[in-house]
Design brief:
Length: 439
């Protein structure tokens, strides 16, 4: 996410910070480079023009150019303006005072609307709500089947009909059903097309008019860049939207859609999809995203991801095993699984400030899979006491895990190093288990 833009901006800021004093022409030269970097990242031309103008007005002031750290002051101004451009603060989906809250999902075919509907339902369910999904895309039977499959995965009911041909009637019936079943949130997965056409817009207008949703959420594929922005504007003009969810942000190295779409539509981004897994939907925090774009990491999101994954009781159990020096291969395997559940490892590491500057670290999640396979090939006795793993046992473990004896030796060596490190922690007064990565 934003990888190429981040690299270019960091290079520009490095030059600025390297100068003791800044002149107006230095700022102008930097702004010219920032402008080009944003345009190359597929940010809307008018958005870039306004953004650069606002930064220039603040950056060439006397208090900046004559300050002790003018380069850092300019970076702060860029950060503040980027936060403003991205929407200032997180905006959640508004709930109706009298249930059910009806959320109407709209967007083109292929934007990830159906998967995002399920992700949203799962998120509400985690918050203690009782969501219901509605398969209102009657154009494609496959869309109904997909939503049914996703609903069963997250244990959320899906309202659908194979016989009904009118999506408006289906949506009205779903509201009656939700009241009977005590469902407090209805998520309507409406039809999409490969491009905007009159029949699609007529259908969506009719649904909106008859069910009066609390929120209309436009789902956009961020990888389509300026197309996503233009389509969003079209939906806002014709249907009226209340917010945006950007999908496939993990695959978008440029990030132009995220930076442009708020200014162009005047509507907030409420969530971003950061992966294919059903729980990879993050609330959109402008300040955190600005921090990621400028290469400053996103520690708050990293902590939140960790807190979702690591259970307090399990953490206490792990701490006890460290204190009693009984940290086993089974403990190591459990922690590796939890780390992998937090999401793609590269995404997590890029939330750590400065990590993106380290070029010689190869993040290969296959190595974690290999380690787990090796641990799984051990007997219960071997997992509890590594000292019994002799040469013949190592050969058997390698054969059972589809790896080599060298791989097995390396995992055992790493495990011994982790145990040594934990022993050092244990000896420290008031030792508490680290919150993020438990080993």
């Amino acid at each position: 996410m934003f990888e190429s833009l981040t690299e270019k901006l960091e290079s520009i800021f490095k030059k600025l910070k390297g100068k003791g004093l800044l002149k107006e022409e230095d700022v102008d030269a930097a702004l010219k480079e920032i402008r080009l970097a944003l345009l190359e990242a597929d940010v809307n031309f008018r958005v870039v023009k306004d953004f650069i103008q606002k930064i220039r007005e603040k950056a060439v002031g006397k208090e900046v150019l004559e300050s002790l750290t003018p380069g850092q002051q300019v970076v702060k101004i860029v950060n503040d303006e980027l936060c403003n451009l991205l929407g200032k603060s997180n905006v959640r989906i508004q709930l109706a005072p009298n249930p059910p809250t009806i959320i109407m999902m709209v967007g083109l075919h292929g934007s990830g609307k159906t998967t995002t509907s399920a992700k949203l339902a799962k998120l509400f369910k985690k918050e203690g709500r009782r969501p219901m999904l509605v398969a209102a895309d009657l154009q494609r039977p496959a869309a109904i089947d997909q939503l049914i499959t996703l609903g069963s995965q997250i244990d959320v009911p899906v309202f659908y009909s194979r016989e009904e041909k009118n999506p408006v009637n289906l949506c009205i019936d779903s509201i009656k059903k939700s009241r009977l079943d005590g469902r407090d949130i209805i998520i309507l997965d409406t039809a999409g097309r490969l491009h905007i056409d009159e029949s699609l817009m007529t259908e969506l207008k009719e649904i909106k008019k008859n069910v009066n949703p609390k929120e209309v959420i436009f789902v956009a594929d961020s990888m389509t860049g300026q197309d996503a922005v233009n389509i969003a504007k079209n939906f806002e003009d014709q249907i009226g939207i209340d917010g945006i969810i950007l999908t496939k942000m993990d695959g978008d190295a440029r990030g132009g859609a995220a930076i442009s779409i708020i200014s162009v539509t005047g509507k907030p981004i409420k969530f971003i999809g950061t992966g294919e897994k059903i729980d990879m939907l993050e609330p959109f925090y402008p300040d955190r995203i600005a921090s990621r774009i400028l290469g400053m990491g996103d520690v708050l999101s990293l902590i939140e991801q960790a807190q979702k994954t690591f259970d307090q009781k399990e953490a206490e159990k792990l701490q006890k095993s460290i204190m009693e020096d009984t940290f086993t291969f089974e403990d190591l395997r459990d922690q590796l699984r939890k780390m992998r559940n937090m999401g793609p490892l590269e995404n997590l590491l890029n939330m750590i400030p400065g990590f993106n500057k380290i070029k010689d670290i190869n993040v290969d999640e296959r190595e974690l899979v290999k380690v787990e396979a090796i641990i799984n090939s051990m007997t219960k006795k071997e997992r509890k006491d590594y000292s019994i793993i002799n040469g013949s046992r190592r050969r058997r473990i390698a054969l059972g895990s589809g790896t080599t004896v060298t791989d097995v030796n390396r995992v055992i060596k790493q495990y011994i190093e982790i145990k040594k490190m934990l022993k050092m922690f244990k000896g420290k007064k008031g030792f508490k288990l680290p919150k993020l990565f438990p080993f």
